[in-house]
Amino acid sequence: MNRVFNFSAGPSMLPLPVLEKAAAELVCYGDSGMSVMEMSHRSPAYEEIITAAESGLRALMNIPDNYKVLFMQGGASTQFACVPLNLMKNGKADYILSGQFSTKAYKEAQKYGDVVAVASSKDANFSEIPVVDKSAFRPDADYVHICFNNTIYGTKYNYIPDTGDIPLVADMSSCIISEPVDVSKFGVIYAGAQKNMAPAGVTVVIVREDLIGNARPDTPAMLDWKNMADNGSMYNTPPCYSIYIAKLVYEWIESLGGLTAMKALNEKKAALLYDYLDSQDYYIAPVKKDHRSMMNVTFVTGDSDLDKKFAKEAGEAGLKNLKGHRSVGGMRASIYNAMPYEGIEALIAFMKKFAEENPKA
User: Fold this and answer.
1) Rounded to an integer, what distance in angstroms lies between the CA atom of residue 251 and that of residue 56?
2) For helices 16-24 and 240-256, what crossing angle results, to 10°?
3) Which CATH architecture describes the domain 16-254?
4) What is the pTM (predicted TM-score) of this model?
5) Assigned architecture for domain 258-357
6) For 209-255, how does the pLDDT look when each residue is reduced to its tens digit (9 = 90+)?
7) What mean pLDDT is reported for the chain?
8) Rounded distance, CA 331 to CA 105, Å?
């Protein structure tokens, strides 16, 4: 095989053992005589798959019994509308803006009610996470929304905002199942799967049961969490193959020792890269140190032409998709669960070589 180190922010690389398992079962799953991509979602074989996927995620994240797990479609961006449609009883919501996706969610929610940005780190170019205490939130807000890890800017919350009795909603698309998290501190957690769980196509929504059943009357059936919960995530044909891959990913993480072990591996990878960045002055890491993401590491040379050359030559060297997001430029190494330690070592070796061969003026 001639596999590269894929640093894409999403769709991202998947664990090799998962791909190999899926390849072995691609043509015929078990004794079904067909691929998972071909089987009816109402068949006993597929019902076993989706049931195992849910139970696997519940075990992995230690999800309390009073939470529903939904497998939905439309990506995390569809949840930007689902959240206000399902939660706005008083017509009010508070948002903390820490990057592009939290801002998009905020703008989408404004279509449905009185939505306030209680804090933003935009003035700092989203290089840090706003620190907000309970007094910042309106007591009659229906929920508070955050984006827990910011893929584009490489930041992550180093605390869980205290919202009191107000449900906390978190977009965890780019950090879910990378480390343990206390689900009970959140009313809703949602995540597009294509960064750390599965191919694009499925979105996981973890929602506390008392928050289900309050959707606006004009909420589309496909966006109503109660409708999806009542139908076991199969109101219509679900993204069957993506859910199957997610099941395999959950099993793979459990085989390594669960999320505690996964966190240790991710911390080791991130520390290796950040320690190198902090040890030299050719590359600049713009994110405030105590707000750095374990999953998305951003850096620049300070010269846009050098940044472009870096991304191009890195790709030619088998280090793919290191170009930063078009809105911020520079470089971004997304080092999700599936990225091996050797990938970080290869990246640092290339960074050293590039710096030697391309001195700054």
Assistant:
1) 7
2) 130
3) 3-Layer(aba) Sandwich (3.40)
4) 0.97
5) Alpha-Beta Complex (3.90)
6) 999 999 999 999 999 999 999 999 999 999 999 999 999 999 999 99
7) 97
8) 25
